[in-house]
Amino acid sequence: MAKTPVNLPVLKVFAPLLLIVGVLGFVMPASMALTSGAAPYNIFHLVFGAVGLGCVFSKRLDAVRSFNIGFGLIDLYQAIASFADLWPKAAFQWKAADDVLHVVVGLGLVAVGVLADRALSVPQKA
Question: Do 78 and 98 form a contact (C-beta atoms < 8 A)?
């Protein structure tokens, strides 16, 4: 019985979500937003949402897993950067909600990327 991949459906949801967040960042008034609406941060979400969709459309599990792990690590870095006043804190103008999301999403994506679908990525011996 073939196993169903986990990373692909996760990224099928997450990549469009990144695009939506990027667009909403540009159209939602800052006074109503729980997260940063800084233009560089919105562009970051749009670019990575597009890259994520590219990985989804490629249907290459290695690319999808790599994106999930890589973006998860970037999210964790953003949480650290926010607390340690590191680049790109000034440009991205994170809020407290961003910090929470970066930790939760970062840990989730890294966990899914590392733990799920490992057997599907390794060629099976007959």
Answer: yes
